[in-house]
């Protein structure tokens, strides 16, 4: 299992996530990602190549003498990965093996250089995960040398040991790599796991396509959001999301494209779940009372001669709208606000209601594997009286009063909600590092490094 994680790391970092569908996401892994994998992948590859060598039968004497041979160390000084257009990834590695031959009377230590070549195909699995399979593998073994040059061991013995080691490693090394890649597919299966968005909502990604060029590998992923186990479906069908070639920061490891429909689906889910609704209550959040309102609306003063608390019930019946323009993301909310006063019998009495339009500036960021957001009010909040049980309500007078008790709680609630974030496509233990977020016309791009953490 440890070995499976070994080479698994090499390719997991190449296939962490990806794109396209309706709504769609695209993740491209570039040459910089291969360089990162090549560097940190040496140690797991070394562990993976620590195969078991069976006893060597020494026929040099009158009696067959079984001699134990052990790999003491495998050092990989060179590991290179590159894309194969239309196919997958090629692995080229140089490894130096150190063996110990437990001969009598003195053990013998030997070194052996090995060159490895493996081609791994990347395809779409039947359950929506990337599937990696080794289609070709070969190993080129060099000449065995003694570590102790003063040892007068028989050259004939070295030739026999070389033949034994060659026969063992030529079969075992490629078999080990193939087994490791098979174990990797289990790890890649975590791509399609459900990630929570809220207490009763989740997001699930699945792969719908893969493209490999000589410069990058691009995986298309569909994003499906669920509320109480039921999928969220947009009113209109979205077209396939295609990520332009030159966007974001050039030379980064990963380029992640998030389509407009993904944002539309997430906001529709939040609206249907009622997550955007709130009640503004209490003197700390809402100093408004019937006495304050009574100075603006005479009927309120008449009905409530004694000051009574006022509650604002904010409900979003209309789905929020996100607009993505180059270097600018905005969010439009149209809440319905009902203003209620506590009556003497502890019941609440509706005073009036407002149709409100709030335009917000949306700033996006990424933390580990989550896309997060913060908002600030853009321009004036628009108010329109929807109904009234207290006669005429002058919106100009109410505007300033309502803004002071409405905007701050709304922003606090919304920013806390968006701060929880929504999971981006990911596999276990792989995170985005030093990400930058760019807004384009109709989509968002994340340029990021990658960080593998156990």
UniProtKB/TrEMBL annotation:
Q: Which residues form the Lipid-binding serum glycoprotein C-terminal domain?
A: 248-448
One Pfam match, by short name? LBP_BPI_CETP
Record key words, sorted: Signal
One GO molecular-function entry: lipid binding
Q: What is the lineage of its organism?
A: Eukaryota, Metazoa, Chordata, Craniata, Vertebrata
Q: Enumerate the PANTHER family for this protein.
A: BPI FOLD-CONTAINING FAMILY B MEMBER 2, BPI FOLD-CONTAINING FAMILY B MEMBER 4-RELATED
Signal peptide position in this chain?
Answer: 1-20
Which family does the UniProt entry place this protein in?
A: Belongs to the BPI/LBP/Plunc superfamily. BPI/LBP family.
The name on file for this protein is: BPI fold-containing family B member 2
């Amino acid at each position: 299992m440890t070995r499976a994680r070994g080479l698994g790391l090499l390719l997991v970092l190449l296939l962490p996530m990806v794109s396209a569908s309706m709504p769609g996401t695209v993740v491209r892994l570039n040459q910089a990602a291969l360089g990162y994998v090549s560097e940190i992948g040496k140690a797991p590859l070394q562990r993976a190549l620590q195969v078991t060598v069976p006893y060597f039968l020494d026929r040099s004497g009158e009696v067959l003498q079984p001699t134990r041979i052990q790999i003491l160390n495998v050092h990989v000084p060179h590991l290179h990965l590159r894309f194969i257009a239309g196919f997958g990834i090629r692995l080229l590695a140089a490894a130096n093996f150190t063996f110990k031959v437990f001969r009598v009377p003195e053990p013998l230590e030997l070194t052996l250089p090995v060159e490895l070549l493996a081609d791994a195909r990347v395809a779409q699995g039947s359950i929506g995960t990337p599937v990696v399979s080794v289609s070709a593998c070969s190993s080129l073994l060099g000449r065995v040398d003694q570590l102790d040059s003063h040892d007068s061991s028989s050259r004939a013995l070295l030739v026999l040991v070389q033949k034994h080691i060659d026969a063992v490693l030529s079969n075992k090394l490629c078999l080990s790599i193939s087994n490791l890649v098979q174990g990797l597919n289990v790890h890649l299966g975590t791509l399609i796991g459900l990630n929570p968005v809220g207490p009763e909502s989740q997001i699930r990604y699945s792969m719908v396509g893969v493209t490999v060029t000589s410069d990058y590998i691009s995986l298309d992923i569909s994003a499906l959001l669920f509320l109480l186990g039921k999928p969220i479906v947009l009113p209109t069908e979205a077209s396939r999301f295609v990520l332009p070639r030159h966007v974001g920061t050039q030379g980064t490891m990963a380029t992640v494209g998030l389509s407009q429909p993904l944002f539309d689906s997430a906001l529709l889910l939040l609206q249907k779940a009622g997550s955007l609704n709130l009640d503004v209550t209490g003197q700390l959040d809402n100093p408004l009372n019937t006495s304050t309102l009574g100075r603006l609306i005479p009927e309120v003063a008449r009905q409530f001669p004694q000051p009574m608390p006022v509650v604002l019930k904010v409900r979003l019946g209309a789905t929020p709208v996100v607009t993505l323009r180059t270097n600018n993301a905005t969010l439009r909310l149209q809440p319905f606000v009902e203003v209620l006063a506590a009556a003497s019998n502890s019941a609440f009495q509706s005073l009036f209601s407002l149709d409100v339009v709030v335009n917000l500036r949306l700033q996006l960021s990424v933390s580990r594997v989550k896309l997060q957001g913060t908002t600030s009010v853009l321009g004036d909040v628009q108010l329109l009286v929807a109904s009234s049980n207290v006669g005429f309500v002058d919106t100009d007078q109410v505007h300033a009063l309502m803004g002071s008790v409405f905007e701050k709680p709304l922003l606090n609630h919304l920013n806390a909600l968006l701060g929880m974030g929504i999971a981006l496509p990911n596999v276990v233990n792989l995170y985005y590092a030093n990400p930058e977020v760019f807004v384009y016309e109709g989509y968002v791009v994340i340029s990021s490094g990658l960080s593998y953490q156990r």
